[in-house]
Write a structure and sequence with these properties.
10 strands
């Protein structure tokens, strides 16, 4: 099983980044997927999730309207479009199955 995040970078406040998570080795299409972040000195928090059925999405209140989670089942890839970035969005972003059994290694997002 592999989940490989990419797209993390240094961005200015108000800027945008798109994260990708390329997956393999498990049934991506039948798994609800999520993005989780961990800010320095803080616990991990769920940022966004997308289910397998009708593609319903769920967001942390603080990113609602700024972030968009999406998935491409054919490419077994999860995405997170992040707009209007704020300094408090800084952290390591992980993709993971919602059930938590599979995690990526994380990608660093720094907004400064």
């Amino acid at each position: 099983v592999q989940l490989v995040e990419s797209g993390g970078d240094l961005a200015q406040p108000g800027g945008s980044l798109q994260l990708s998570c390329a997956t393999s080795g498990f049934s991506f299409a039948t798994n609800d997927m999520s993005w989780v972040r961990q800010a320095p000195g803080k616990e991990r928090e769920g940022v966004a999730a997308i289910d397998t059925g009708d593609g319903s999405t769920y967001y942390l209140n603080s990113v609602e309207g700024r972030f968009t989670i999406s998935r491409d089942n054919a490419k077994t890839t999860l995405y997170l479009q992040m707009n209007t970035l704020k300094t408090e969005d800084t952290g390591v972003y992980y993709c993971a199955t919602v059930r938590g059994e599979y995690w990526g290694q994380g990608t660093q997002v720094t907004v400064s």
